[in-house]
Amino acid sequence: MRVNKTNIRVRYEETDQMGVAYYANYLVWFEVGRTELMRSLELPYREFEKSNLFFPVLKAYCEYKQPAGYDDQLTIVTRLEGLQNVRITFDYEIYRDDDLLAAGYTEHTFVNDKGRPVALKKFSPFLWNRLCQAMDNSTDK
Question: Which CATH number fits domain 3-136: 3.30.450.20, 3.10.129.10, 3.30.565.10, 3.30.70.3460?
């Protein structure tokens, strides 16, 4: 499974005086979706951290289509889109009902606890194989 849907509700603190969600919150919601996708793959961040492996963001992109408002129920659709030896890419879509509010992606690199890039296949064959299985065994898109 490489696609996950996560439901959230826009909190008051995430909006401005007009009740519109602040633009940077969409990147936070991407992180929520990514975290839940990894958890659904039985690869929570904690599993990577135990191996002294981290994947900081290299690139983040978000295209805003429509605003979210206070108390809106949103669905974050997150996909494991790409996997390379030193990088991983996630795609995101945020919906309110059937309306697409935002779409984007994040690209991450694998680094060790010293912040140095690592080739995941060599550094942790177990985690590499689990991510490859998640890519290969997907029927959802």
Answer: 3.10.129.10
